[in-house]
């Protein structure tokens, strides 16, 4: 995968001026949560943006509030201030309909003291309601205000004209470098494919050195953001004693060095909002946050379910784990706050036993003891995550799959209910991520679930899939004389059996 370092443009302003709406407009999708109430955004969020062909990385930030540094709004302001370090440009957004406020002037004063070039954005400028506010913007001494309506997409051309002189040269140079790198990568891929075809081997569907998409999920206050900050060795995400601080799912690209091999690996760390029991989630914003977290799970490769060592395993944890497995993601579980755990040995064994009982559909899910404070166990967990993704993405050679299938049938032939044999003819792998297999045969509607489970367990044990979700479906040949069934056969569990 080509790693691109796009020019970075930070969006700054007080609460409720439309920063997240502008961010979503620039990236072309609803990545950031948007609501009428102020203070929705708390952590800074990044996304690849495009503006009339000009590509850059947009950064959404929390609303700037004049509060004590130790308070939650004060810590959010500190995150916004840090976001400007290393940025190529800033978009200072104010509400043209409300006009300038003392807080806008405070932000402008701070921005003038920075070295980053600033484009002044007069948002909500649709119609005539923002004309006086646009004129007020000139008093800030930051150049001509750019009238924009982030909600309706107005003012895009003017914004492009103001932004291009600041980042255009770098963006064009980057595009040239990326084209050259992609050409080299395509040539190498073609050589690997030709070599595999000559050797009669199947080419791997995934590059093992590709970035790992790793989502961290769990109940509120389990330490998800603290753990990611520890890995990054910086206060990238907002943390604190308050429950439910994280709202948006935040993705951060990070370069991890494997201490065992010294190899550098790219990981996309995804922080998510805490997931409480559904009955307790009544606030609109919390519902949006949980939905955003579940979408992050759907697009992750490996998901780490983080437990709180001071609370152990709860029913909600099992529900979250089941959801991850239903989506076919590779799952691992980490017990956080191990540095303050009481009777750690009994805790670990108890959680292990409860997981094997509560997640009967997939026993042996990897379990780790970690500490976001001391860093204990984090490298071990990350190394295991790459191995888990490898199993989750692996395709079994056809010859090895057929050998296993023949051995499994010989060791334990299918039953013959009513004296009529169930014939299992052959098996094929139809996909990966998660691994998916189809068995073809006759009278498959009569095959007991216990025998399917026998085959599924054999697949995992003999073919090295370990504790990753595996889909197994059964399919019969079409019977033109069977009008009721239409020859469709049986598909285990609706979604395939894990």
Shape: elongated
In the residues, how many domains can be counted? Answer: 3
CATH class division of the largest domain:
Alpha Beta
> Which percent range describes the beta-strand content?
15-25%
**Low-confidence parts, pLDDT < 50 over ≥5 residues?**
485-496
Main sheet attributes: strand count, strand direction, barrel closure: 6 strands, mixed
Terminal residue distance: 31 Å
Subunit structure: Associates with the 50S ribosomal subunit.
Keywords: GTP-binding, Nucleotide-binding, Repeat, Ribosome biogenesis
GO molecular function: GTP binding
Function: GTPase that plays an essential role in the late steps of ribosome biogenesis.
What do you see in this structure?
- Residues 485-498 have a biased composition (Gly residues).
- GTPase that plays an essential role in the late steps of ribosome biogenesis.
- The chain is of the alpha/beta class.
- It has three domains: 8-168, Rossmann fold (3-Layer(aba) Sandwich), CATH 3.40.50.300; 212-392, Rossmann fold; 398-475, K homology (KH) domain (GMP Synthetase, Chain A, domain 3, 2-Layer Sandwich), CATH 3.30.300.
- It contains twelve helices and 15 strands.
- It has helices spanning 19-27, 72-83, 102-112, 131-136, 156-199, 224-232, 284-299, 315-326, 344-358, 378-392, 398-411, 449-463; strands at residues 8-12, 45-51, 54-60, 89-95, 118-123, 146-147, 212-218, 250-257, 264-271, 302-308, 330-336, 367-369, 423-431, 436-442, 471-475.
- The strands form three sheets. It has a six-stranded mixed beta sheet with strand order 2-3-1-4-5-6, with helices on both faces. It has a six-stranded mixed beta sheet with strand order 8-9-7-10-11-12, with helices on both faces. Strands 13-14-15 form a three-stranded mixed beta sheet.
- Mean pLDDT is 85; it is low at 485-496.
